[in-house]
Amino acid sequence: MKRPSLNLRGFPVFSFVRRMARWRSIRLTPEGTRFLLFTFGIGLAAINTGNNLFYLLLAMMLSFIVISGLLSEHCLRRLEFHRHVPDLIMANEPTALTLSVANRNRHLPSFSLRLFDVVEGQDVDRGLVIRLLPPQSSVLLSYPLLVTKRGWIQFEGIRAQTLFPFGLFMKKGLYSTAAQLLVSPPIKPLTVRFMDELVSEGQGESLSRRGHGSQLYNLRPYQPGDDSRSIHWMTTARTSHLIVRETEAEDQRRITIVLSTVAPKERDLLFERSVTFVASLLWQLTERTYPVRLLVGTEDSGLGTGSAHLLAMLRLLALCERQTPETSGVANHGEPFSHADNGERGYTVAVVPWSDQAVSANIVQADRVLHATQLEELTHAF
Amino acid sequence: MPFEQAFALGSVLLATTAFSGLVLAQSVPLWLALPTAIILVISSLLAGGVRFVRRAMAQVTLSPTLWNVLLIGAFVILLIDLVVISRDLLQAGIHFLIVLLGIKLLTLQQRRDYRHLYAISLMAILASAALTTDAWFVPIFLLYLLAAVWTLLLYHLTQEGSESPSFDSSASAAVGHAIFPSHITHRFFWLTNGTAALTIVLTLTIFFLIPRIGAGMLQKTSGEALRTTGFSDRVDLGTIGSVKQDPQVVMRVELPDRLPGEVDRLYLRGLAYDQYNGQSWSHSGTRRRSLQIDADGTFLARPTGNRRSDDPAGTIHQDILLETLDTTVLFATPFAELVAGEFLSLQADAMSGLHLSSPPSSRVRYSVTSHVPRLVADERTASALAYPDSIRSQYLHVPAGSEHVADLAHRVSEQAFTPFGKTAAIQQHLLENYQYSLEASTATLRHPLDEFLFSRKTGYCEHYATAMVVMLRTVGIPARLVTGFLATEWNEYGGYFTVRQRDAHAWVEVYFPRSGWITMDPTPTVDTAAATNRWESIHQFGESLRLQWDRLFIRYSAKEQLAAIHEVQEGGDALWKRAIHWVSLLIAPVSQAFGRLMHVARTFQPDMLGFATGAIVVCFALLLLTLRDRISLWVTAHLPSTSRQLVIAQLYTRMVRMVERRGVSKPPSSTANEFVKLVEEGWKEAVPMVAKITAYYHQGRFSRTPLTPDELAHAAEQVGRLQSLMKKHFVRITA
């Protein structure tokens, strides 16, 4: 007959101990191990001889251990941590994070604190050491953070450890300072040739029309009702007739970038490079003040300009995930294209790190399609 | 002092303390102690940063190989020491330890060397603990503990410093006041000493709580036993004189049921002798009986020849701590009835002497309840007494050639008509007509008694007692000689008699059929008024501390622990009483010393100037301690070098702290004015002061008009008033 195994995890005491162990843990240092061995030896001598002075020395050694526990606990108690993180950072770009540490003890300072970031359950050493934190005071620490992967990064808390007072034990305490930070794909330089080609293609294929903008569209004779501010004075002087300047509507140069998120696992690297490419492209276009729109999977950033819009698009790119052809349907690939009206999209560039027949049929609707081969070529230096 | 320097000094102090322990335990020969002491001095100077020593030591560079060779040499010497010289593992080990200590002190460079030094020091203090039970271990232990706390703390902090230069030099930056000081600050100094004090308290607590499960299998004896005379089977007349100048303490006797001063002299009986051959005393019977033991471990020792009295006034309890002696005899006030102590068996001889089975290897603590026989009134006046034959045959024997003594005895007692009267007459004769002197050694004489009685007429206790016994016997009164100690030195601080070798004494026991053996002492009282000078008082104080040390630490046993546990089970009151008893035992010497000091103050003498100065210094220190807040307030407000803006900020912070102690805390979000409103709600009496300080704070901190010194002084005054208000409040609460 099979005996039921003893499952301690179900016991409330066990879970309490586990919870406590998560918040506080203690570990022996090499010096502590030697100290314990000496203590054990003296204890043995005391028992064997019955000499009370040996018991006194044993009591001294034990009290050192107890004092170590008490003082290290005091060092870690009433510490407060506040983390200051930016909204968005870029992968592979060092960023400074700040951490404020306050000692709320009324009388005793905290000594020898070493701080670790707890990220995904792992203690990450950022080289943060506080040798002394007086009572009722705080310090602001900053440290560089370099993240190599886009997406969310979760900071679970701060783990503080101390060897104070005698270096016999290392006591650790976990402080919850949960925070999350979004990491966008990095921005890489794109070749000037590619950008110029892309922009000129867009110009060529778009229909020029009058409207609000800054680029010159046409010069024509002045007619009553025209805004006097639009008179082109140089031509007027040359021709001795009032000539006004018409501007080209800016919305005619809008560009839509479509990123296909479907790619098999083996194309993951290229997919990531494609995401980086799209981010870099968006950055370049925003720099050139083009109204840009991004379509990633089912997400649509809408049309917009400026840095705020760029950040919104980068957030979309930071969070986009690759989908395998099996899990996604063909409809998914084509959905942005089918709903998007050509007139609203403007010049459309599709970035397709992986394609099959079904997808190609829909992608054809884009003005320019960058397939895997071209992407490999464009992103080989990333 | 820089941290590194303090660390080095602390390490040397730790080693010095451990070494001192070994030296005080007399386990280090001079040839080894002297060079080690020199090395310690050099190391101290080196650690203290004395330049010329540093320069000199820099010149002397020995290669590591040479040190290793020295180490091997030391090990070889250990083996030779073990096999040829000391032939004792502990002694040889200690010598080796000292050599290692010296080598390590001269090669202190890396942190590993310091760790080795600590390990050696620990072994050394352990060895000294093994070798002693004396009270000098207390200051050594406390100093060692203090040095250990400092050293370990500094070891850790300096290691942290060397591993991470400072947190702001790496990728981080500090805002605030968290720069680690490079020197020992005031706060750090007191924090470390506070840690040491806490460690001491905790050590004592743990010491008393650790279960004593020791089997004592490897227990070492407490050293060489004290040589005594007068307690062997045969005692030559005049031998006690050889120890009459020896001040070594033999035992300490407490009388728990007697008030201090109630008993001025105490006879502690050792052995009795019945046979005198003209030159020496001996026992006629050497048979001893083992005493019965009752359920609670008490030996029943009813003396033979004495009747049990139920009169509680006739019993006396004694708690005796006997030093290690070379005799098996246990001493007690005549006559012991109940004996309890740390021994497995106890024997009694035919003349009520108590014996251990073997000479003790360490101090013996035991308690005795004695019955003091009193002479029955009838026998005081009876003209003749009927002595049993056994007594007559054993206690009336006189040596041949005692005719002169017999004549003298008859002459002296011819006016008395009762046995008691004759006894008293003989005693009186000896007391009045003979002179006490330790110069009169008669050990080599052929007829020492005749010499004493008729020629020299000077002698000491043995002569007096022998003369009385022989004279009594010649007039037909049974008597015997008793040797023991006469305790007269009362320790006021500890409340006990200190008995020394020089208190060895001989006296007489006279037999009365109904009363039993009555103690009589023909030796005149020597005016040995204890010197009551300052040093004697200090000596007595130290002596009493030694006794408490022995009782509370050296003799602390599983039995006492079990008693405490039992009391916990019985109820808290008994335990509380016991704790109070222990505490009172600890503070008794201190309170006695204080009383003595008061007495000295009342009878002030010029030579007590030192004491008076000490007392004044202590009072002044206490006064400073009490007024420290006021003083610091004054210093804050009046120190010219301090910036006024900083001063008003400090005063404001102090005010906030005080108000917070009263229960009104300042939320971080509230402004100074909002805080005044909070104080209005929580502590109305303080509002005028708080409002004024806040106004000054605003002015000093934020306005363009700086505060004048008068305004600062006024702000400080307001803080002082607030402090007084606070104290009144607490006094009211306490009342």
Please give the structural blueprint.
The complex is a heterodimer of chains A (382) and B (735).
Chain A: H1 12-23, E1 24-28, H2 30-49, H3 52-76, E2 79-84, E3 88-90, E4 95-103, E5 110-119, E6 122-133, E7 137-145, E8 151-162, E9 169-184, H4 192-205, E10 216-221, H5 233-239, E11 243-247, E12 255-259, H6 268-287, E13 292-296, E14 299-300, H7 306-319, H8 330-339, H9 342-345, E15 347-351, H10 357-363, E16 368-370, H11 372-379
Parallel strand pairs in A: 3-9, 12-13, 12-15, 15-16
Antiparallel strand pairs in A: 1-9, 2-4, 4-7, 5-6, 5-8, 8-9, 10-11, 13-14
Chain B: H1 3-24, H2 30-47, H3 51-59, H4 64-85, H5 89-106, H6 111-131, H7 137-163, H8 186-209, E1 234-236, E2 249-254, E3 266-273, E4 275-276, E5 280-282, E6 288-290, E7 292-293, E8 299-300, E9 315-322, E10 329-330, E11 336-341, E12 347-349, E13 354-355, E14 364-371, H9 377-381, H10 389-395, H11 403-413, H12 419-433, E15 435-436, H13 448-456, E16 458-459, H14 461-474, E17 479-487, E18 489-491, E19 496-500, E20 504-512, E21 516-520, H15 534-554, H16 558-570, H17 572-602, H18 609-626, H19 628-638, H20 644-661, H21 672-682, H22 687-702, H23 709-734
Parallel strand pairs in B: 15-16
Antiparallel strand pairs in B: 1-5, 2-9, 2-19, 3-17, 4-5, 6-12, 7-8, 8-11, 9-14, 10-13, 11-14, 12-13, 17-20, 18-19, 20-21
